[in-house]
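Hi R.,

As promised on Friday, here is the backbone we talked about, encoded as structure tokens. Could you run it through your design pipeline when you get a chance and send me back a sequence?
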């Protein structure tokens, strides 16, 4: 339904060379830039805030995909709207999820919804007709460099089946432990957007890594 999008996660970049890292990913052929915002409450880590996202967006010429791992995305998302093409929130967050998704859309961003590994797929079903992107976490959110959880691909398959059954048009994104092998598994399950951090930023040739990942393991 969609061509495969590759979204390098800036959580894995060298923050001290932010401009250069944004341009490196962009020039290597990235489709989006993925930015994980963490508040220290929803997940046990703190990453960066609106100024960092704005600084990244000021350099980028590709869309910024902002993932709010925060307890109150309804309160914080307006601070990211100007710098983001898409804003994803969590179904487990402490807000009116449907209303927040609608407000994100009104801010001229597309909207996404994510769920933790322990959250059943059924939790997102009521919102599938209100989103542009479904983000399936394939690790526990909060820290980069974790191992891929293959059992989460069942949620990707469920999302694909539900999208087809209800004739919806949201993308299916996976995030966590994505490398060349797990990218192939994710695409085969139905994912059409891949977030990858360490496997891209630490690659000897990021452009080649992106081409291979996008091509489902075939350059």
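Update: got your reply. Pasting your designed sequence below so it's all in one thread:
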């Amino acid at each position: 339904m969609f061509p495969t999008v590759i979204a390098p996660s800036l959580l894995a970049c060298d923050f001290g060379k932010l401009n250069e890292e944004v341009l490196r990913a962009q020039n290597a052929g990235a489709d989006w830039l993925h930015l994980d915002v963490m508040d220290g409450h929803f997940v046990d880590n703190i990453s960066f805030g609106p100024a960092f996202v704005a600084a990244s967006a000021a350099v980028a010429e590709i869309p910024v995909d902002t993932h709010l791992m925060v307890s109150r995305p309804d309160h914080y998302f307006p601070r990211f709207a100007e710098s983001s093409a898409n804003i994803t929130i969590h179904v487990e967050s402490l807000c009116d999820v449907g209303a927040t998704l609608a407000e994100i859309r009104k801010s001229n961003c597309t909207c996404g919804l994510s769920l933790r590994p322990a959250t059943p797929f059924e939790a997102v079903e009521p919102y599938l007709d209100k989103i542009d992107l479904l983000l399936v976490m394939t690790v526990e959110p909060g820290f980069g460099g974790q191992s891929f959880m293959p059992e989460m691909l069942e949620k990707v398959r469920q999302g694909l089946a539900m999208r087809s059954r209800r004739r919806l048009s949201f993308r299916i994104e996976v995030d966590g432990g994505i490398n060349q092998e797990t990218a192939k598994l994710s695409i085969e399950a139905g994912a059409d957007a891949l977030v990858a951090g360490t496997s891209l930023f630490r690659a000897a040739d990021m452009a080649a890594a992106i081409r291979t990942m996008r091509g489902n393991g075939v350059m």
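One thing I noticed while checking it: The chain has a mean pLDDT of 95.

Thanks again,
M.
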